[in-house]
Amino acid sequence: MKSAAIEGVKILTDLRAICKSAPYGNFFSFTQRYYDFESYVVFNKELSSNVLLALLAVFVVILTVTGNLTVTAMVLFCVALVDLFLFSLLAMWDVKLNSVTVINIVIAIGLAVDYSAHIAHSYLGVEPPECHPDQRLLSNFEKRVYKARGALGKMGSSVFHGALSTFLAIIVLSPSDSYIFKSFFKMWFGIIIYGVANGFILLPVMLSLCGPISGAKHGAV
Question: Is the torsion defined by CA of 35, 186, 163, 126 positive or negative?
């Protein structure tokens, strides 16, 4: 894999330069292996553009659904972190970047958004009380915590069951000897674990600290 990704690209680049500078007119060299080399020539550019386009699509859709820029930015941050964590997981498991793993990296954005978007949308629908049961006015922080707890209580079980069913569906691939199946399992394992962790831990914490509050009084702290 290293040969194709590094040496193959160098071979392809050098041969093109030789063909271009040779005094024999318009000609080119070709072998079946060039197909593999060509994919790595545009590898980084295509990966970056596809990930950015997928994140842009997530931003537009979540902003349309929630109508709140702050919540949308938090969801986008959680989704982007899943991809960042996946790169670390691939390095730990010695899984190389190739056409199989890159596809899953892009797919991860669409999968991970479910674990955060539902909880964020539910957060916006929870209306906090103005007063504590002891008649003390709630601060903005307490209202955010109330809304975050309400969102987890309302949608947490559904999101968890969805993640669990997906995990049960891919765990059967773990004992496989096929490189594609093994890579698929490792990638989706990371997507589920990191997506759920961001949706159930990171996102509620961010919402509790700086989430929007409907009907909040500006004097509360």
Answer: negative
